Amino acid sequence: MTGPATPTAPQPDSGAVSAAVPAASGAGTPASPTTGADPGAPTAAAPIKLAADTAGALQAALAAEQVAVWAYDLVAAYDTADAALIAAIRDGHLARREATAGTLVAGGSKAPAAAPSYSLPHPVTDVAGARALSAVIEGDCASAWRSVIGATDNSALRSTALAGLSDSAVWLTRLKVAAKTTPATVPFPGQA
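^ thats the sequence. predicted structure below, dont judge the formating
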C-alpha cells in the first residue's frame, strides 16, 4: 500500500473546531454501515477529559477523516459510475470528521482544522487511479481508528473507534465489489 495523503499546506496548530459546530446529523446523513447509527450523532456518554495519548490518536483519526472528505471529491470526479456510493461514503466520513472534532473539543483537546489541500500518494488521472486512492483512504482511516481503540480504556470511545474501523472496512469492500475487484475484503482492516 502506498503512503497516506499529506497536507500541502501546514495545518494551523492553534486552530480548533468550535464546539458550536453542529453535528452532521439529520436528514440525508448516511447511517453507519456497521452500526446503523448516524456517525455524526452525539453520543450518550458524558464528555471526558482526554489523556494525551488518546487525544493524539483521535487527532490522527481526525486528520485521516479530513483527508478522506477532501480526497473523495477527487475520486468522485473520475469514478462517475459509482457516484452515489462515493457520495454516501464521503458523507459518512464528513459526519465522522465532525463528530471526532466535537469529541476532541469536548475532551479539552484541540481539533486542528483541515488543510486546504493534500499531496496524494500517487497521481489520479483515471478511474483506476481514483479507485486505488479510495483503497488508500479507507486503509488510512481504518488504521487511525484501530490506533484509537488501543489508546483508550473508555468503552464509549472504543465503540466509536470500532465503528470507524468497521465502517472503513465495509466502505472499502463496497467499493471493491462495485469495481468487481477481488479479493473484495481484507483479513485485518487497519493493519499494514
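Residues 49-113+125-192 form a domain with the Ferritin fold (CATH 1.20.1260.10).
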